[in-house]
């Protein structure tokens, strides 16, 4: 059987220790859930968890082929350039190493489902989940902000997709820094449009400094406008849907090899289960096929 490429999860540069810790836990959990598949991850640029260390760790175990999944909600030219440069540097260090890259994560229906769940949690149990009450709730989707108009446009795109068919009065956008409107200006706009209840929804995968700043800015604005209810939702976090989406992107990049390996791992699990239930004689079940995800290879 051909050995599939390892899964390399790539974050885009951060010096935020909490974000790096959450990222590290996420990578570890993915590895635990996928025994037999080498999994590692790190960040480009200056970071407490460098991408190069992740590559080196797997290379020391004999891995030469990697499928890279960018763990980012917002694709950007800068992020692409940083990742391209990081992988080119690894190829120079290890000429026998090859990388194939997957598409960025968002916005994807699984991510939108997570965001909707975070909105429901922020609104709480009871009548606020009723359609009539949702119609009186405005969502402010807060992205990190960028000097790149294309990156900021992705937040607006996610806001439109989140608004469609979910019954909220509106979904507006704001940014923590480097782009307008900022959180306070975004809340001003919601109020001018008649909002009496606003949910501030961070568009970041993990908790950290950026999410804290969004919450602090929202709380400061709310103190000045006590007649308007403002609540802040949690970040998506390391949910089941996010893990499934990363594996979906991995299978797209790795192609049929990932499907074959997954089938083999299923068979190994079944064999171990059979061993546990017998006195040592093992009946190997027929291997089941898996549906292809119409893989798209990106180099």
Automatic annotation (TrEMBL):
InterPro entries: CbiX-like, Sirohydro_Cobaltochel/CbiX. This is Sirohydrochlorin chelatase. Pfam families: CbiX (PF01903). Keywords: Lyase, Metal-binding. Residues 257-299 are annotated as: Disordered. It comes from Streptomyces milbemycinicus. The keyword Hydrolase does not apply. The keyword Cytoplasm does not apply. SUPFAM superfamilies: Chelatase. It comes from the Bacteria.
């Amino acid at each position: 059987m051909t050995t599939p490429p390892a899964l390399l999860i790539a974050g885009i540069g951060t010096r935020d220790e909490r974000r790096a810790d959450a990222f590290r836990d996420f990578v570890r959990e993915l590895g635990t859930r996928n025994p037999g598949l080498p999994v590692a991850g790190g960040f480009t640029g200056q970071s407490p968890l460098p991408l190069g260390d992740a590559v080196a760790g797997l290379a020391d175990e004999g891995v030469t082929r990697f499928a890279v999944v960018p763990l980012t909600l917002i694709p950007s030219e800068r992020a692409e350039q940083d990742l391209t440069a990081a992988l080119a540097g690894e190829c120079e260090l290890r000429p026998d190493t090859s990388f194939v890259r997957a598409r960025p994560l968002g916005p994807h229906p699984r991510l939108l489902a997570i965001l909707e769940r975070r909105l429901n949690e922020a609104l709480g149990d009871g009548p606020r989940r009723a359609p009539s009450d949702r119609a009186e709730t405005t969502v402010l989707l807060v992205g990190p902000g960028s000097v790149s108009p294309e990156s900021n446009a992705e937040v607006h795109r996610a806001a439109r997709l989140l608004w469609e068919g979910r019954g909220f009065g509106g979904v507006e956008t704001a940014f923590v820094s480097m782009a307008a409107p900022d959180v306070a200006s975004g809340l001003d706009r919601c109020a001018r449009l008649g909002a009496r209840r606003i949910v501030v929804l961070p568009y970041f995968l993990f908790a950290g400094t950026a999410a804290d700043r969004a919450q602090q800015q929202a709380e400061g604005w709310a103190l000045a406008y006590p007649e308007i209810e403002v609540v802040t939702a949690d970040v998506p976090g390391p949910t089941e849907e996010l893990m499934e989406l990363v594996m979906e992107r991995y299978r797209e990049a790795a192609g049929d090899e990932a499907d074959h390996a997954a089938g083999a791992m299923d068979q190994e699990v079944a064999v171990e289960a059979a061993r546990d239930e017998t006195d040592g004689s093992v009946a190997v079940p027929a291997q089941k096929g898996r549906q292809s995800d119409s893989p798209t290879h990106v180099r």
